[in-house]
Amino acid sequence: MRTPLYDEHVSLGARIVDFHGWDMPIEYSRIIDEHIAVRKSAGIFDVSHMGDIIISGLDAGDFIDHIFPTDITSLKSGQCIYTAFLNENASIIDDTIIYKLNDRKYFFVPNAANIDIIFNWLKKNVSGYDVEIKNVSDDIACIAVQGPMYEEVLNGLGYKAVDPFTFSFERSAYKNAITGRNDVIISGTGYTGERGVEIICPAEEAVSIWKKSLDGLNKIDGKPCGLGARDTLRMEKGMLLSGVDFNNDKTPYECSISFIVTNNHDFIGKKKLEERKSIDNDIFRGFISGDRSIPRSGFGIYSGDNLIGNITSGTFSPILQKSIALGYIKKDSSKPGTEVMIDIRGKKVKARVSRPRMVP
């Protein structure tokens, strides 16, 4: 599969890789250069491979409450929030951003590998609710503009900035399958931990927005960025990656995102979540090492000879100039600053425990 921007990536000399069945750019120049551009200036990302699913109808609010552990219906129209889908065992199926258009219409963005899984999950649990569930992923593109100078790029597009976790609308020449109107959605969200927006637009308009964004980047020494920089950026900020940092096995409490759980309503997995809260003994943490060897998924975390955790993802941090990792560790060893050892291909390397967000 290819996004509407595939030819643009090729023309820029991007290195293309297979990402869950999508031909996507991993890098255009060097991952580290793209990473630094986002932290210092701005970068743009093609995230059109992500999904777009609409829930609408008379019972949309009640269905949303049933599906998610987060109080979403109390949001104002024009607000969005980070949350997750839980199964009956209270494990996270996927995380997402959900948007409230009005009391009877919401849309959310599942991860690319989980679009069909989530769509079918919704269909399975919709009985008794007067709602329509529609997958419009093929009709929508999304371009993320991220970094401290992102507004310079937006200004070049003629768009206005928005506050974090709010969204607004700009005019489009094409109909947006999410809203049914000729508009572009400007969302105060992203996956880099920097200020920025995601531009959710009709697929037909993606190339025009991308090219204009590149013009704006050139004025501020910004860069187009691939999935490689997106991954290293999110790791510095302790952001979870679906299928890597959780995979139908971890609860919000284990993943250190307990803030998504609001116990003012019933939801799928609620009873089991309360049971597991007092039983599960692992918690998601960051790990910072002075050694340049990079911890990888599956590497063990030790206290002396005792295995106390496992790494789920790791990289070299261009900002800290140190190797960093994310993973799960026993709660009694999870205090920030605690020294541990990570087994990197048979060599025990010192590291210290950190909150997941390792770069402020």
How would you characterize this protein structure?
- The chain is built from eight helices and 19 strands.
- With 360 residues, the chain is of the alpha+beta class.
- A hairpin with an 8-residue loop joins β11 and β12 (196-202).
- The protein folds into three domains: 6-48 and 138-236, Probable tRNA modification gtpase trme, domain 1 (Gyrase A, domain 2, 2-Layer Sandwich), CATH 3.30.1360; 53-135, Alpha-Beta Plaits, CATH 3.30.70; 281-354, Elongation Factor Tu (Ef-tu), domain 3.
- The chain is globular and about 60 Å long.
- The chain starts with 5 loop residues before the first helix and ends in a 6-residue tail after the last strand.
- It has a six-stranded mixed beta sheet.
CATH top level of the largest domain is Alpha Beta
Largest sheet: 6 strands, mixed
What would you report as the Rg, rounded to the nearest angstrom?
20 Å
Number-wise, the strands total: 19
% residues in beta strands: 25-35%
Number of helical elements: 8
Shape: globular
As for the CATH topology of the largest domain, it is Gyrase A, domain 2
In total, the number of domains comes to 3
Structural class: alpha+beta
Say which CATH homologous superfamily of the largest domain is assigned: Probable tRNA modification gtpase trme, domain 1
Roughly how many Å apart are the termini?
36 Å
